[in-house]
Design goal:
By secondary structure, this protein is mainly α. It is built from 5 helices and 2 strands, in the order ααααββα. The chain has helices at 7-37, 39-47, 55-78, 82-111, 131-149; strands spanning 119-121, 128-130. Helix 1 (7-37) packs antiparallel against helix 3, helix 1 packs across helix 5 (131-149) and helix 2 (39-47) packs across helix 3 (55-78).
Length: 181
């Protein structure tokens, strides 16, 4: 069944996607700036996860990650390399979500709390959070970034893809012609 959205619905969906792209970009810019303004606190929060023991590597992550978040956010807001920025955001969010979940499970077990009653500063720049709300928030951010990966959000983009429209495209398998002998 091939469903084609009416032109008006498609335009509305495109504009909602642009607003989502701007929101996701602004969110990551704000989170990165918050971490840059207090790098010592961010480093302490990273240490609480105990997933990296090498001090040089830990310091490097604490120094580079906020700037990387800001760059990805700026790319989304400006509409430059939207898919690449969205892919990097997904690559940051998925492991971070698993690490936060693991920490929340440990805190719940140690303090005898229900999982959704666990509160701690996860290091994302928003202060202390209720873990269940943070996991829902991350799931929504991952969904939005994946939505942008699907090719949506081209409106008001300075350059959606790093490869221009004039570049040769690889044909889909269904578009290939069988070889004639």
């Amino acid at each position: 069944m091939n469903t084609v959205l009416p032109d008006r619905t498609r335009r509305a969906l495109d504009w909602i996607t642009v607003l989502g792209r701007w929101f996701l970009g602004a969110y990551f810019i704000q989170m990165g700036v918050t971490k840059i303004l207090d790098p010592v606190l961010f480093l302490k929060l990273l240490r609480q996860y105990q997933f990296i023991t090498n001090p040089l590597l830990m310091n490097s992550i604490a120094a580079a990650l906020p700037w990387f978040e800001i760059v990805c956010g700026l790319l989304l807001v400006l509409g430059v390399a939207v898919r690449g920025a969205a892919l990097n955001i997904v690559a940051m969010l998925i492991p971070f979500t698993f690490v936060v979940t693991r920490r929340a499970i440990a805190v719940a077990a140690a303090q005898g709390l229900p999982f959704c009653a666990v509160r701690f500063d996860c290091g994302c720049g928003g202060g202390e959070v209720v873990i269940c709300q943070k996991l829902v928030e991350n799931a929504c951010l991952i969904f939005l970034a994946c939505w942008l990966l699907s090719g949506r959000g081209r409106q008001l983009a300075a350059r959606f893809s790093l490869f221009g429209a004039g570049s040769p495209k690889t044909p889909l398998p269904s578009q290939l012609q069988p070889a004639q002998s």
